[in-house]
Specification:
The chain has one helix at residues 2-20, and strands spanning 33-35, 45-50, 58-64, 70-76, 81-83, 87-89. By secondary structure, it is an alpha+beta fold.
Length: 99
C-alpha cells in the first residue's frame, strides 16, 4: 500500500515545489544591445534612475529636456551595455474642458 502511494506523492511534491519557485523576469532582447555610450545632451537632465526586480541587472535612466520631453534609456549596468532604442514621451499642452 505504501509503495502504491509513493509515486503519486512524489508527483504532487514536485508540482508543489515547481509552483512555489519564484519566476524571474523576461530578459530584454539581446540583439538590440550596444556598448554603453555617451548619452546625448539633447535628452536633457537626468531626473530619475529606476530598477525593478523583474529585470535584475538593468536600470532605466530618465531624462527631461527644456521642452518637457522625457527620454528613457535602458542600461544593463552589469555588462556596460544599453538597449539601442530609447523611449521618448513628448509633452503637449493640455486642453481645458471648457474650450
Amino acid at each position: 500500500m505504501k509503495r502504491a502511494l509513493l509515486l503519486p506523492f512524489l508527483i504532487v511534491l514536485v508540482a508543489v515545489i515547481s509552483l512555489s519557485c519564484e519566476r524571474m523576469g523576461q530578459e530584454p532582447p539581446a540583439e538590440g544591445l550596444v556598448p554603453l555610450q555617451d548619452i546625448p545632451i539633447e535628452y536633457g537632465s537626468l531626473v530619475s534612475v529606476t530598477m525593478t526586480e523583474q529585470y535584475p541587472g538593468w536600470a532605466q535612466l530618465w531624462f527631461q529636456n527644456d521642452a518637457g520631453t522625457i527620454n528613457m534609456v535602458r542600461v544593463r549596468w552589469m555588462t556596460g551595455q544599453m538597449l539601442e532604442g530609447v523611449m521618448t514621451v513628448s509633452r503637449t499642452q493640455s486642453v481645458s474642458e471648457g474650450e
